[in-house]
Write a structure and sequence with these properties.
Blueprint lengths: L1 E4 L2 E3 L11 H5 L2 E9 L2 E2 L2 H14 L8 H15 L4 E8 L16 E8 L5 H6 L1 E5 L20 H12 L4 E5 L5 E4 L3 E6 L2 E5 L9 H12 L4 E4 L3 H5 L3 E6 L3 E8 L2 E2 L7 H19 L11
Helix pairs in contact: 6-8
Length: 297
């Protein structure tokens, strides 16, 4: 792993922030995760735009501009020299006295972590995964807004632990209305009669960037796709289901708890969309206009 701490390259053992940083004390921080294709960050402009939106959501001023973030990220990637990388960009409120007042802090800190991206095992896509419909509800938007990619992740941690006890790959959370929301690290899609559905943003979810791209790909290829409220029964009665996540793209879901989804194997629509997703990635990364050719936010 390579670490860029406020513009300085440091070793993993030297990568330290103060115990008085409000990101450590209170989870007062935001982050983004990005992956590379061909060594280049994918849809970085969209990730940085979402980082800015998260900053606004917690009244935090980013310490450097998007262009500076790009420069620092590229410096860290060049130092790492991995074939492919998994990147985490973190911005904390900064060091300050104990207390909730953000004015107690000095300047925000930024951290860029670059780790080698390990390809997912082939069986993940060939056989699919199981998700657990957990008892932990997704945060209310009026409490800690899921649209803010916050470092305050206890909601997801508790949900993930519950799924792990059942030996499931992911935890699927409901919102306060009992509707499907999202998983701890991914968005959920269901397919019924070749029609795609995914929870709408107002269901209380993160506006996933892979989710956004999959919706666009579906529409470009003549598949009906909608954002709406979905019940657990919609998932259980689906022909297919899948997860979308930056690092692993599209992951088929074949079981929810003890219930088999569809035929119990990755479905045709899921495989079709994943193939089209890979084509879209190649098209964007090879475009002479990239990153201008990124999806419009």
């Amino acid at each position: 792993m390579f670490v860029n701490l406020n513009g300085k390259m440091v070793s993993k053992s030297e990568a330290k922030v103060s115990i008085f940083d409000h990101g450590f004390l209170y989870g007062d921080s935001i982050y983004e995760t990005v992956r590379t294709y061909g060594g280049k960050p994918f849809l970085l402009d969209l990730h940085l735009a979402r980082l800015q939106e998260s900053a606004q959501g917690i009244y935090l001023e980013l310490p450097i501009s998007p262009e500076q973030f790009k420069l620092e990220l590229n410096r860290t990637l060049e130092a790492a020299q991995y074939l492919e990388s998994y990147i985490r960009i973190i911005v904390t409120r900064g060091e300050g006295d104990i207390g909730y007042n953000p004015n107690l802090c000095g300047s925000p800190s930024f951290i860029i972590l670059v780790n080698q991206l390990v390809p997912a095992p082939a069986e993940l896509y060939e056989r699919g995964v199981s998700v657990s419909l957990v008892s932990v509800r997704r945060n209310l938007a009026s409490a800690i807004n899921p649209a803010v990619k916050s470092g305050n992740l206890l909601n997801q941690v508790l949900a993930w632990m519950e799924a792990a006890r059942h030996k499931d790959y992911e935890a699927l959370m409901l919102n306060y209305k009992g509707e499907l929301a999202e998983c701890t690290m991914s968005n959920i899609f269901v397919v019924k009669n070749r029609r795609l559905s995914t929870p709408a943003l107002d269901c209380g979810i993160l506006p996933g960037i892979t989710r956004k791209l999959v919706l666009e790909i579906a529409q470009l290829n003549g598949l009906e796709a909608k954002e709406s409220s979905l019940s657990p029964q919609d998932l259980l009665e689906a022909d297919e289901a899948f997860l979308t996540v930056t690092s692993r793209e599209i992951i088929p879901v074949v079981r929810c708890d003890h219930h088999v989804i569809g035929s119990g194997v990755p479905g045709a629509a899921t495989k079709f969309l994943h193939a089209k997703y890979k084509q879209k990635v190649e098209e964007l990364m090879n475009s002479s206009l990239y990153p201008i050719a990124e999806m419009k936010s």
